[in-house]
């Protein structure tokens, strides 16, 4: 899995390290996707038969990066994307408990890798995971703009998949979009999404639909709770969100630099600057380290949703009894904060465009200091906690490495995806440039009240292929 006990990876320069992380993380999607369905596992290697539909969206996006960076050919990437979209478009949908991939254009959160069917009867039809899938679908639609028959079919399939999602159906309480639905119980078990969090992308894509758009008041409804988290944290005035993935997921596909909605216009910043401040606030939190966790500091930080040792009470590295958790949304902020000493490399890595110097230093530190345990075939394993040293504890995930602490043994698709995409955005604006020309996203942003910057340019003027990206040496 990782380099092995006592085997520290060779030190690389900053550019070479980003190359290596990008290539390894890309390979996660290229090598673990199902050869027939194209579905991507939620986690690997622990659950090779369970796909995450959001991980598929990140995978579709990663294939574009692979093609641009010469990790695969454009034709190979197009074939993989076409295979995946064709399967998604033709798999059965409906209200049945079993035997379907989704309903009303939405997809179940977890699917059987080989059949595409709902993984089990506990799995919900997920609006946010469908939106993350659609981010990848629309990125592929805009990227594969050629006249080749495969690229033409990709665009047709992408339009069909996006156009059939009935976003209005998922609005059961005014302008809110509900989190999920299950056969038999319906929407009842689920709450509504309201900002600020990763559901920005959900609302923008719902507003942009040419067939089943969300209500006109949806963005205003989503933003209604913003005052709850606007304020100063660790010296940074910003719209808060404790886990960093809230500040990253939508930015994978949307270039928020220089465009503003009403809320951001009144405060004189944009969502990109907001995420920059959130990133720096989390780093400052780690430097302050109010919980006294081992290794936290200026180059070791990053709280987000990730795996953890388990829901156990155990002694930490100092012998103090502590409460730990398994998979959970960890984060630091004015509200919704949770910190049990578990850090996720994706939390820092996916913030690369927001704070390049600070993130690069963090990646270097994690690669050199912890790489023997944490860095393997597909890049960084999902999470680690050097304060958790109890080898006798009942773990939910991972293992306790002697002399190190707890380290995950899995890679998670939804944490791998933002790493490879945000490296590409930082270096070449790849996904951002691609999506700036997507009519559906532009429509959604306009309906949400965004203006300024690249939105004032024509779609043609921001075509992703005016200037091809140089291949790596």
Report the CATH superfamily of the largest domain.
Glycoside hydrolase 144 (GH144)
CATH topology of the largest domain: Glycosyltransferase
- Using the CA coordinates, give the radius of gyration: 21 Å
* Strand content bin: 5-15%
Specify the helix fraction band. 25-40%
Low-confidence blocks of residues: 462-473
Q: Which quaternary structure do these chains form?
A: single chain
Helix run count: 15
Instruction: Give a quick account of the main beta sheet: strands, pairing sense, barrel closure.
Output: 4 strands, antiparallel
Based on the structure given, which CATH architecture of the largest domain is correct? Alpha/alpha barrel
Mean pLDDT across residues: 95
The total of beta strands comes to 21
Which geometry do the CA atoms define?
globular
Strand numbers in spatial order across the main sheet: 5-2-1-21
Helix-strand makeup class: alpha+beta
């Amino acid at each position: 899995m990782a380099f092995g006990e006592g085997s520290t990876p060779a030190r690389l320069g900053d550019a070479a390290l980003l190359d290596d992380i990008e290539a390894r993380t890309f390979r996660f999607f290229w090598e673990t996707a199902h050869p027939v369905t194209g579905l991507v596992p939620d986690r690997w290697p622990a659950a090779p038969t369970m796909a995450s539909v959001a991980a598929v969206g990140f995978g579709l996006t990663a294939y574009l990066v692979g093609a641009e960076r010469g990790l695969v050919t454009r034709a190979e990437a197009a074939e993989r994307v076409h295979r995946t979209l064709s399967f998604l478009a033709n798999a059965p949908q409906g209200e049945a408990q079993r035997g379907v991939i989704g309903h009303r254009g939405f997809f179940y959160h977890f699917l059987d890798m080989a059949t595409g069917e709902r993984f089990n009867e506990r799995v919900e039809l997920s609006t946010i995971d469908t939106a993350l899938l659609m981010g990848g679908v629309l990125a592929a639609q805009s990227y594969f703009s050629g006249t080749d028959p495969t690229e033409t079919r990709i665009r047709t399939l992408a339009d069909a998949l996006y156009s059939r999602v009935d976003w209005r159906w998922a609005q059961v309480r005014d302008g809110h979009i509900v989190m999920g639905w299950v056969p038999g119980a319906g929407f009842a078990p689920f709450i509504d999404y309201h900002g600020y969090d990763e559901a920005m992308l959900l609302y923008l894509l719902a507003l942009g639909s040419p067939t089943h758009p969300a209500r006109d008041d949806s963005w205003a409804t989503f933003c209604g709770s913003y005052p709850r988290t606007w304020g100063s944290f660790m010296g940074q005035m910003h719209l808060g969100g404790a886990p960093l993935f809230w500040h990253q997921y939508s930015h994978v596909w949307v270039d928020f630099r220089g465009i503003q909605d009403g809320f951001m216009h009144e405060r004189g910043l944009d969502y990109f600057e907001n995420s920059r401040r959130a990133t720096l606030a989390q780093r400052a939190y780690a430097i302050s380290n109010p919980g006294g966790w081992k290794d936290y500091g200026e180059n070791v930080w990053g709280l987000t949703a990730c795996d953890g040792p388990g829901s156990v009470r155990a002694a930490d590295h100092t012998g103090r009894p502590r409460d730990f958790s398994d998979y959970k949304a960890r984060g630091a902020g004015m509200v919704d904060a949770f910190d049990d000493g578990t850090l996720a490399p994706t939390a820092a890595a996916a913030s690369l465009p927001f704070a390049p110097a600070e993130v690069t230093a963090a990646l270097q530190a994690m690669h050199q200091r912890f790489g023997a345990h944490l860095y393997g075939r597909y890049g960084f394993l999902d999470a680690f906690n050097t304060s958790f040293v109890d080898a006798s504890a009942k773990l939910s995930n991972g293992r306790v490495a002697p002399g190190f602490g707890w380290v995950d043994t899995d890679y998670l698709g939804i944490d791998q995806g933002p790493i490879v995409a945000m490296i590409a955005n930082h270096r070449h604006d790849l996904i951002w440039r691609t999506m700036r020309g997507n009519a559906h996203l532009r429509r959604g942003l306009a309906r949400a009240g965004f203006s300024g910057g690249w939105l004032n340019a024509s779609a043609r003027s921001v075509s992703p292929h005016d200037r091809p990206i140089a291949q790596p040496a």
